[in-house]
Amino acid sequence: MKNTSKKSILHEGSVSYIVPFILITSCFALWGFANDITNPMVKAFSKIFRMSVTEGSLVQVAFYGGYFAMAFPAAIFIRKYTYKAGVLLGLGLYAFGAFLFFPAMHIGSYFPFLIAYFILTCGLSFLETSCNPYILSMGPEESTTRRLNLAQSFNPIGSLLGMYVAMNFIQNRLIPLDTAEREQLTHQEFEAIRDADLQTLITPYLFIGIIILLMFLVIRFTKMPKSKDQSHKIDFIPTLKRIFHLPHYREGVIAQFFYVGAQIMCWTFIIQYGTRLFTAQGIDEQVAEVMSQKYNIIAMCIFCVSRFICTFLLRYLNPGLLLKLLAIAGGFCTLGTILFTNIYGLYCLVGISACMSLMFPTIYGIALQGLGDDAKFGAAGLIMSILGGSVLPPVQACIIDMGSIFGWPAVNVSFVLPLLCFVVVAVYGHRTNHRLLR
Fold first, then answer.
1. In total, how many domains does the chain have?
2. In which band, very low, low, confident or very high, does the pLDDT at 5 lie, cut at 50, 70 and 90?
3. Which CATH number fits the domain that encloses residue 196?
4. pLDDT for the residue numbered 254
5. Using CB atoms within 10 A as the burial measure, which of 12, 176, 255, 293 is most buried?
């Protein structure tokens, strides 16, 4: 593979994309924060409102449902206007959804929070539909996958911050009553504790809303490049037929659906997995949750470091080949998560993150390769495939709520779903590598 210099990734001819690249890359960190402050909220809302894991997982349904609902409207908007306009609208909806947590707290019920999450992620859908192909357009065609991997390397930095905030400013500050103790409260006691916990929960969202507004202003008043081959003609149906006729794109949408499902399941239910393990050792439930979240943070640190390492390896290895190898490794780690019922199972679950680090941007880059201006709609299809993060976690939650299956902890058995997802990703990596070698 040709070794391109770092300069060539962000330069094309005499054009430099450094400042726009930095600003758009910062948006990757912002939606990483939103994604990973949300995963622990499944457990938090289940406790605050005295719900099952399945009901708590509706947070993920609302969150990733927003991605699905707004992806193609976002693509049409971007096609009619510009990538910059899509980024600004995405930031505006992100901030609006975050600020909706305040009235939701005063209503004091679960449903308004789901609406806030949905609107917030409609903004994230605009951001991802805009930013990913915008990064691909900022430089030469031959370095698109490396460039997107570099930008995506900053996404887990935002994710780490989201996890840190969730653990230290939400989970650690919730009133220390476990699920069983909350069930014994009177209605008045429950409402008082619920309201105090909700006030704790919304504070980080209000702060991030303010930061998003500041980011909106910075990008609004910065000169940003227009995409190459800009076309404002919609041609919605013909474009969809054209891009879905391409095997590398069509199969990429399927692979992305299952990858995102695997990622969200592994990161959301690491808390349930760790909590079962630690409470079985006689540790208090709330302490066990915090300990589990620390393992979640370790997993994200590994994910972040692995992303930079894999971006470097892409200089020497075909993206499809590396994708296949990491998916196979992820499958073996998932097998360990299922089969071990002790701390080694948790270690395997943490190790999955090292294997996942490359997957999203690499599938994205391979799928959009050679699409030109059609990448706007192509990006929308790939963002819609994030629906996997909405569809698959509730299925896993239903399995976890069973408690045990044939004497085996249900939380362990539930990781059969991520295992199947990694098989799909490995097949896509193999097929794309095979096409490139022909």
1. 1
2. very low
3. 1.20.1250.20
4. 94
5. 255
